[in-house]
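User: ok so my PI wants both of these folded by tonight, can you help

Assistant: No problem, let's get them done. Here's the first:
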Amino acid sequence: MTEKTKPTITSETTEMNKQSETTEIDEHLYSDVFITVTSKELIIKNYYFPFAASLTIPLTEIISVDNADDLNIGLLSMKEWGMALSNIWFALDFTRSFRPKEKIGVVKVKNQWMRKGFSVKDVRGIDTLKRTWSDVKNNQYNQ
């Protein structure tokens, strides 16, 4: 009878696996229950009605990033989920009307008339998105 041998895992194999995992995963620069910002994309969680699926937008496709205060958006133009009296579709947040406008973000995407609205737990989320999007946009123009 032949003895079955188990494959051996060397430190080299483990290191190669770690490297391939890190190259495939884009680091989260900011993440909360509402959005995730990476160096390449914005993920708006609980976006689509009625299944609350996420929407992923490449940063290269974004035209503008603002907060509700910058755009002077009032309560009638915002909704907990969906579209109110504006051209903004808001991701799910049942507490949006109680948030400061600085914690409500709006992005405009190339070739789309409807803007995307979302909340953040911390103002740093929108600041991180603005900074990262600006860096991507500047790199795009410099190439």
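One down. Here's the second:
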Amino acid sequence: MDNSKQYRALVLDRAQHTEIQMMTPRTLSEGEVRIKLGAAGICGTDLHYYAAYANSGFEIQSPLTLGHEASGTVSELGPNVVGFEIGDKVAINPVVACGHCLPCRRGQANLCENKRFPGSATTIPHIHGFFREYFEYPASACIKVDPKTSLEELAFVEPLSCSMHAIERAGNLLGRKVLVSGAGPIGVLAAACAKAAGAASVTCTDLSDDTLAIAAQMGADECINVANHPEQLQRYFEGNGQFDVVVEASGALPALDNALSAVRRGGTIVLLSNLPAGKVEIRANMIMLKELNFLGTMQFGLEFEKALSLILNRQVDVRPMLSAQFDLADAQQAFELAKDRQRSMKVQLVSNK
């Protein structure tokens, strides 16, 4: 790409304000490729940054291009890049680990002490994310796919990886009863992963019939609107709980309290959601009395390639989740739709120019 030819990038420069800025491509470093944006999903994290210029206690320090769920096409090869050709479609892993710290040496790249994550306030200095027409990226973090692969489906690999990591943290689900609290994108994908992992039944709860309808399309056996019918969930509290595994994907503290009641003795609760920062009140004694496994999750590790395989083989069909696509220039509309859970599940940004 001619370094004198600029490209469009969507930049968040303060809360609830984005603008298109022209960026100049830099010279590719060794082992890098330049990628033309295929599609990039708007994540819940992006919505938090958009609303408050911060997320989970991390404040954006300087204007930033968001976006970490993306697919694209290789447009240029840097020095010593092998295994790729111009025009290759790629899935893009946003977790760039150092490979040397203690977590990395233990096989936990998602917990890397020197991790570089684009479009996030957690990486200082910030690295621009994928809401731009072109970006430079390590070839080692890209996976080439069949040319016939849909770029919009390919952009679901990252969120599916997060959900799969939570499901794998829960252990063997074969024949187990699973509850997923929250039918947003991450929760719906967790339900799909649980079914793919052999769960006997998957129940999803949410406050919206619209999102629950998509959860049903994605494989949920039972969907409960806890705003309209709380008693349908409360019946599972009987007998010290009836679910082997509860995945908390709503980010709502009442749902976490319900999880403690709904999980059976010796069961597992997995925190997939981004709960509010700071201290929270929970019935911690229930963890002891029920001898629960209470697990956290952070992004993903080896699940990225597994998630890609699930999508390529249509073992998880993400197509029902895509609500709309918008050009980068129409980001305001895209963000407004993405935060309206009555009207959307997953909104993507693309470059139509």
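The chain has two domains: 7-156+318-350, 163-296. The radius of gyration is 20 Å. Good luck tonight!
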